[in-house]
Sequence to fold (154 residues):
Amino acid sequence: MAASTLSRRGQANLPMGEAFSNAMQIEIKPHDLTYCDGPFGSRAFRSAFAEYFNRRFNPVKPVAPEHLIAASGVSAVLDMTTYVLTDEGDGILIGRPLYTGFSGDLTARSKAKLVPVSSGREDPMGESMVQKYEEELLRQEEAGTKIKAIILCR
Fold:
């Protein structure tokens, strides 16, 4: 199967669709990677992704296509997510070191506050970080900052 993302003129220009199809073990056609069905992404793509997610993670409550929104780029997704989940002044715990672009992506529109949690010499995704996140959560809540989210990123 050879699927590709499409340019603004509808021309295939990147081999991402094929890589995505192979990784998820689902068939994705070029149209599936467009916004032709509306601003949330194509119905076929959202259905395929929901099927993959349910098969891969076996969630307690199955993910349905209407639970999903496709967006163009991680910056847009982070902006949308923090805008809906946080209020101005809420905190977002995030492991440090971190990508410098996160500051703008996560706080520009939402007016939330990034709260870095240093991993030091620990594995930033390791079990020992749970205690560090919990300590920072308690410290922030004691200082009056409500933590609404945790971003885990390598």
About this structure: Residues 1-14 have pLDDT under 50 and may be disordered. The CA atoms of residues 50 and 64 lie 6 Å apart. The longest strand covers residues 91-96.
